[in-house]
Structures are given as C-alpha cells and as structure tokens.
Amino acid sequence: GDSVTQMEGPVTLSEEAFLTINCTYTATGYPSLFWYVQYPGEGLQLLLKATKADDKGSNKGFEATYRKETTSFHLEKGSVQVSDSAVYFCAQRDRDDKIIFGKGTRLHILP
Amino acid sequence: GAVVSQHPSRVICKSGTSVKIECRSLDFQATTMFWYRQFPKQSLMLMATSNEGSKATYEQGVEKDKFLINHASLTLSTLTVTSAHPEDSSFYICSAGPRGVPGKYEQYFGPGTRLTVT
User: Fold this and answer.
1) Who wins on pLDDT, A21 or B99?
2) What is the distance between the alpha carbons of residues B2 and B17, in angstroms, rounded to a whole number?
3) What pLDDT sits at residue B101?
4) Which residues, other chains included, contact B37 with Cβ-Cβ below 8 Å and sequence gap of 6+?
5) A-contacting residues of B 39-98, CB under 8 Å?
6) How far is Cα B12 from Cα A9, in angstroms, rounded to an integer?
7) Within an 8 Å CB–CB cutoff, is residue A108 touching chain B?
8) Most Cβ neighbours (<10 Å): which of B15, B36, B52, B88?
9) pLDDT tens digits, residue range B65-106?
10) How far apart are CA B46 and CA B35, in angstroms?
C-alpha cells in the first residue's frame, strides 16, 4: 500500500547549519505531498506542500521539491535556527483524501 | 486561517470508564473529519474517517465498538473511548477540511487531546 519513509532522528545541528531531511514515498498514483511540523507542546502545522511533479513548496526558509523520478520530497533549509527545533513529518494524501504520515524526524538545533 | 479545536486538551480517567473528545471546526464547515492516534515519539496513525450525517469509516484493526465516532454537524465530530484501559492512553488528534471538492482542500489539525487511563 501507499507509504511514506523518512530519515530516522533525532537530527542535531548547530545554528546556521544546512538541513536536509530525506523523504520518499510509495503510491499507486500521483499524490499530493506535504511536510508538517510539530513544535513542542503544540499541534501539527502544515509547513509546505506540492501537488504535482516538479512543484517546489516553500515556507519559512524551508523548501522541498516533488521528484516523481525518485519518488522523493526531501526537506531543506539553508540556515537553521534554534526556533526550528521540532518534529517534522513528511506525508502524502491518497486518492481517498487520507493523509499518510512518515514516522517523523526530531530536529534539535544547538545555539 | 482555518482553526480546529479539540476539547479537552488533557483528560485522566479510570480504567473501565468512557471518555468523550470533541473536535470542532471554528470558522468553516467540514464534511469530513479524520481521527488520528499518536504514540510517544511515533507517527500519527489514522483511526477513522468521520462523515457528517453518516457512519464513520474505520481503518483496519481499529475497534469501532470501542472508539465511537459521531459527526452530528458540519462543525463537530466526537470520539468516545468506551471502557477505557491503560493501553488506550495516547495522544488523539483530529483534522478537518472545508467543504468542497475532495482532494482540493487543505486539512487542518487540532491541537490534540492527551488521554491517560489509570
């Protein structure tokens, strides 16, 4: 069935470092892809999305490009901040509008 | 933007009792709401899809008689955990999307409800 696989955490980086969190998906069609973020003690928030191949989603300095050929949607940010510390979930929305999540990657940014 | 609320945010109940969790869309109507369960340091697992005015659709392995879902209006869905046991302790999250063509709307997530069964 459809699934999402993302890199295991936790990921620990120093402030201003470059961030990549890998995400790949399996799907029978062409799903919409998402990155959600969960800050400590808060609910899920949509960070960015892409609805078709080659689309690039971006928000708050984060970017991810929908790569159909590699079935990937890797999250990147050029210079992370302490405030980016959170859990990041890669997800896809299937044909029935259900959102399938990856297991989440915990990110720690050190000052 | 669209806001989804949940009540209560935290609840502690005794084993064998039932507890109801509410999910409300505050500024939009939601034909469909989704209920998820999140275990510590793990991902969200979809439990069921709640459809306004009809029965919920449960995912495989989810006991529909234990997790009762009611979607009585376009702004409210409830999840009742019946005869709760300690293994039901978890973080329950709902999501909702505005009415429209399926697949063409965003889903917005509630802040979650932490259930602890003693």
Assistant:
1) A21
2) 33
3) 59
4) B44, B45, B47, B90, B91, B92, B93
5) 41-44, 46, 49, 93, 95, 97
6) 30
7) no
8) B36
9) 999 999 888 899 999 999 999 999 999 999 987 766 555 567
10) 6
